Amino acid sequence: MAHFAVGFLALGLLVIVTGATWTAPLLIIPVILSAYIVRLRTIANGDTVTARGLLGGRTVRWEDIDGLRFTKGSWAQAQLKDGGELLLPAVTFATLPQLTEVSAGRVPNPYD
After folding, report:
1. At residue 78, what are phi and psi to the nearest 5 degrees?
2. Phi and psi of 8, rounded to 5°?
3. pLDDT in tens, the chain (112 residues)
4. Rounded CA gap, 3 and 37, in Å?
5. What are phi and psi of 111, to 5 degrees?
């Protein structure tokens, strides 16, 4: 669904670009947004959690995570035992049952 929004943005930018050709570099914005949508994710398995962004990612072991924190309207943040934080893209309170399943119970299911 997010790619549809990017497509509509691209169509809107085409109107601007056809009016003034010097604005053609604006068309790179939808390309970057699409790449961001494709790359941005959290990958979890029984041993590790990987948070991927546009330019890189970070993998931590479940043992290095002290807990999860949620703020209003945002993705989860893993509180690390070393005092740091790791943003977990696309992990929301609603997706915690899936995270509970892949974490082998390390993350409690709040809906139980």
Report:
1. -85, 125
2. -65, -35
3. 889 999 999 999 998 888 888 888 999 999 999 999 999 999 999 999 999 988 899 999 999 999 999 988 789 999 999 999 999 999 998 899 999 999 888 888 888 7
4. 8
5. -90, -5
Beta bridge partners of 79: 67, 85
Residue 57 to residues 21, 25, 89, 112, Cα–Cα distance (Å): 36, 28, 11, 31
Looking at the whole model, is its pTM more than 0.85? no
What is the CB-side half-sphere exposure of residue 15 using CA atoms within 13 A? Answer: 5
69 Cβ contact partners less than 8 Å away, ≥ 6 residues apart: 76, 77, 78, 79, 85
